[in-house]
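Comment on both lines for my students:
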Amino acid sequence: MILSGGGTGGHIFPAVAVANYIKESYPDAEILFVGAKGKMEMKKIPEAGYKIIGLNISGLQRRLTLENLLFPLKVISSYLASLKIIKEFKPDVVVGFGGYASSPITMAAARKRVPILLQEQNSYAGLANKTVAKRAAVICVAYDNMDKFFAAEKVVLTGNPIRDSILQSHITKAEAVKDLALDSELSTMLILGGSLGARTVNESIIQNIDKLIEANINVIWQTGSLYYKEMIERMGDKIDGSIKLVEFIGNMEQAYAAADLVISRAGALTISELCIAGKPVVFVPSPNVAEDHQTKNAMALVNLKAAEIITDKDAVDQLIEKALAVLNNSDRLDTLAQNIKDLAKPEATKDIATKALSLIK
């Protein structure tokens, strides 16, 4: 089997989850990843124990650059390299998880009549998956109404694969709060901006830090690696035991268990994790993504009364006030928690892997 997708963790981690499930079920299975040279998958996939081949491919920039001028050449060379990979590896099935890294290998698979399964994480389909959708046998999706992008007879609602540590977590709130040295008498707000961080989310917190201090709550604030030192410096002597600044959260299941409310960007995998964890959330969708798909992801939940939303441009002025209002309304918290929990798809990894295996002749 060949699995492909990359550029961001949102494409990589679901692929690894499916690979792990297949390897556990069929230890003799041969699994090869195909990604983009220089991108995070070239490091993350070998760390997960799998071989990966990198293609000389990159995404289109939103402005005129040398990279864009070279783009057609990169697509052609990556497609030819992919044909060679298909010929030598002889996969029984190719699974594409989106992102520009997956386009050449899925197109080559289509040319060589190798069965293709696509997995679309977002509520607005990405270009890579839309390009090859007509040649795919099955398209696994995480949201309803995806037949506006794909042929309805190919679409299967599976959800997104997420980390086993979150799926299998049995940590109670009391245990998590104790382990994190938080005050068990106080409500807890978890603030996430992704592994690198989100400028708007961090600015919304730091500029309103006095409101959070006055609210007398626990705060777990993941600043991301790009902003950690700056936020520490700007906090100054306001850092105390109730506000925990961290660069990165390794134990997400513990953080989720401790949280009464989450503030987060609206990436597809984060949303899937929040559904499994059943956590009330205020989304601040990133405006800096293709087709504004994070806003579409968030609105799919907001329309089902399963989440709240604040736009990126309004966040600094409104986010903390909105989040505190929700946190202090127990009925609202309960409603959001139940509605988001109802959207969880805990069998996603198994269902996608099973569909992929069913395509093998």
